[in-house]
Design brief:
It is a single chain. The chain has about 260 residues and is of the alpha+beta class. It has three domains: about 100 residues, no CATH class; about 90 residues, Elongation Factor Tu (Ef-tu), domain 3; about 55 residues, no CATH class. It is about 45% helix and about 20% strand. Helix 7 links the parallel strand 9 and strand 10. Helix 4 runs antiparallel to helix 5. The longest helix has 29 residues. It is elongated and about 75 Å long.
């Protein structure tokens, strides 16, 4: 995008056609370009971690802005050029429809129970199971806590779908506060997923798992799944698992391992 825009502007100035930049289609190109830059900035790991709501809403709004501005920009060329933003909009729209369909399927007659845990963690137990392996992740929506928002979390268990969520800012902080004020409260909720590739570690004779802090939710779920799967194997088979967990305080152990 940067190469395209800088070369085009330089070329127009070199041939004395800089007035071409005042056309509505070129203004739309600038809007699309700055929207792309804003997407790149808000996709930063720091933004995603500290202000996930901003990251999520900004991306939806900016993608829509890019598609509309790109359509206006290429409309000055020919009809064939319009097919590119149209196809992009169709793919993006289809993805949204599939996600909404999953939300309806998994959210219909579904609810969750909230349990406040020590060290600012919250255990979320869904009423229904999800067809996914522990340690994969799914998007969770609880309208009572944050309407029109979805957040990705690691599955601690798939039947029933269970999450152990640490409180930070925004949704997770409000979730833990609500769970503390209303112990074992049941709320309407929905999940969408699962996503992510989970390695099949049970086929190895020895497994070494390394986790750090509350991020060990993934490795704890993987270890518990390994125990369940190896217990079903033939008697006499030799299997071993080494679990290495780096933590700052002992208080981290209970909420993370409580799944």
């Amino acid at each position: 995008m940067i190469v395209h825009s800088t070369n085009m502007v330089s070329y127009l100035f070199s041939i004395g056609y800089q007035h071409y930049l005042n056309l509505p289609g070129q203004h739309a190109a600038a809007v699309a370009g700055f929207s792309f830059l804003a997407i790149a900035v808000t996709a930063n790991h720091l933004v995603r971690k500290r202000w996930y709501e901003l990251f999520y809403l900004a991306h939806i709004a900016l993608v829509m802005m890019v598609l509309i501005a790109a359509f206006i920009h290429v409309s000055q060329i020919n009809w064939a050029a319009k097919t590119f933003p149209i196809v992009g909009a169709c793919i993006w729209g289809a993805d949204r429809l599939v996600r909404w369909g999953k939300w309806f399927f998994y959210g219909y007659n579904n609810e969750c129970t909230l349990v406040a845990l020590p060290e600012g963690a919250t255990k979320v137990i869904m009423k229904r199971a999800i067809h996914g392996r522990p340690a994969s992740h799914a998007f969770l929506a609880i309208p009572r806590i944050r309407p029109f928002q979805t957040h990705p979390f690691t599955l601690a268990c798939s039947n029933p779908a269970t999450f152990v969520i640490g409180a930070h800012n925004g949704f997770t902080k409000s979730l833990h506060h609500f769970a503390t004020m209303h112990p074992n409260r049941t709320l309407r909720a929905g999940i969408e997923g699962p996503y992510g590739h989970v390695p099949s570690v049970e086929r190895f004779d020895r497994v070494v798992l390394v986790g750090g802090g509350s991020g060990a939710t993934f490795t704890v779920a993987l270890a518990m799944d390994w125990l369940r799967r190896t217990a079903d194997k033939e008697a006499g088979a030799t299997h071993s698992l080494d679990f290495i967990w780096a933590i700052k305080t002992r208080g981290t152990v209970f909420p993370t391992a409580h799944a």
